[in-house]
Amino acid sequence: MKTQLIISIKIFAVLTVLCGIIYPLLITGFAQSFFPEKANGSLIRENNKLIGSELIGQKFDSASYFQSRPSAVDYNPLPSGGSNLGPNSEKLKEQVAARAEQWTKSNPAVSADKIPSEMLFASASGLDPHISPTAALLQIDRIVEARNLTDAQKQHIVELVNKLTEKPQFLLLGESRINVLKLNIALDKQYKHNNH
Hints:
Layout: H1 2-34, H2 36-39, E1 43-46, E2 49-53, H3 90-106, E3 130-131, H4 133-137, H5 140-147, H6 151-164, E4 178-179, H7 180-190
Antiparallel strand pairs: 1-2, 3-4
Helix pairs in contact: 6-7
């Protein structure tokens, strides 16, 4: 009995050192050596100032920016998660109706039946940093008006959306998408003087 206890303690100690210290250090060292940007959270910096992470959605309220999809946790990464409201939920129906009303108010050229679904429903994590290219293109008229841009500049924004659109992973996983934070940063770089 005493021998088995000693063996168990030794195995526990060895596994603790291997799995709790050596393995994490090896993986951290490997990640920092070969994928430092991803290992550090895919952070985006402008002029040595942290703007955010390309992996975590942010809230953009201004009419002069592309807006992210709704978040059940108000874009707070600590309690990330969805609303867990089912398709028969009255509360979900109210939220979707309110979001549709807000969308058509902000984007009057877009009828309610043309609003992309991701702009009406929060993501499962509440932190989705992407929207569809369609959702981005439908916001351009609002941005052009808010920034007082010309038709030529509007066409440039369309080209910017197309340029920053990410294809499905390995050309078959997921759908085409665009990172809202990266898009807004590119928009500001091009039209900073028109910022509001």
